[in-house]
Design goal:
single chain; mainly beta; ten-stranded antiparallel sheet; 2 helices; about 55% strand; elongated
């Protein structure tokens, strides 16, 4: 996903530069950057898995993830002509399958499916370059509070009953880059983000020597988001 996005942006920039050399450029939405506050929304895709560290070397969990979706709103407060403070509340959903390769047994013991839908509330700083005709590259970074709607943190059952438990309240940081494309009627802003958990999201089994969670030191979300924003 990341490689395809970068390739697409590079091809677009090359074609745009060649086209600009052949004709005069009409700059769209010239008053947009004078606004102090503006709003928008985004759609996107994600690919998430987990960063896992272990207390013993012979433990290993294989994570298989499917592509998920992103949808949300954007509020942007311009602090400077090249800096803005951005809030991007939205929903993020993804499914992962965990295979505990160190466990001897059938799929009921070795396999756990983790469905997660998060309310994400990122608070970000966006750093823009100066406008280049109808485009404006930027980098973005910040932190997010993530509420896991699919959490079974309060479930008294654990992996002995087939329940792999995750925490409700989590924190992540994210960094990324993108480009604002000024079009006649709106601004289209594709970006790619890397998202990384700050806290340990694992809820441990009751048994401290559990074969599922006893040997895990850290368990946290990491992923790549591809976002398409419209202002």
């Amino acid at each position: 996903m990341k490689k395809n996005f970068v390739t697409t942006i590079l091809v677009f920039l090359v074609l745009y530069k060649v086209s600009a050399q052949r004709r005069d450029i009409v700059e769209y939405r010239q008053n947009w950057d004078k606004q102090k506050i503006f709003w928008g929304y985004f759609l996107g895709l994600n690919k998430k898995d987990y960063k896992i560290t272990y207390t013993v070397p012979d433990t290993f969990i294989n994570v298989t993830s499917s592509a998920g979706f992103e949808v949300g709103l954007i509020g942007d407060l311009r602090l400077h002509k090249n800096i803005s403070l951005r809030l991007e509340p939205g929903l993020s959903s993804n499914t992962k399958t965990l295979e505990f390769t160190h466990i001897i047994g059938g799929d009921n013991d070795r396999i756990r499916e983790v469905n997660a839908t998060y309310l994400r509330i990122p608070l970000l700083l966006k750093f823009n370059t100066n406008r280049l005709h109808n485009m404006r590259p930027y980098v973005v970074g910040g932190v997010s509070y993530d509420y896991n709607f699919s959490s079974n943190q309060d479930n008294p059952n654990d992996n002995l009953d087939g329940e792999f438990r995750m925490k409700k309240n989590n924190f992540t940081y994210e960094i990324g880059f993108g480009v604002d494309l000024y079009l006649p009627f709106f601004i289209f802003s594709p970006s790619i983000r890397g998202v990384f958990a700050i806290n340990n999201e694992l809820v441990r089994d009751v048994d401290p020597n559990s074969q599922w969670t006893g040997n895990i030191d850290y368990f946290g979300t990491r992923g790549v988001f591809l976002k398409f924003a419209f202002h």
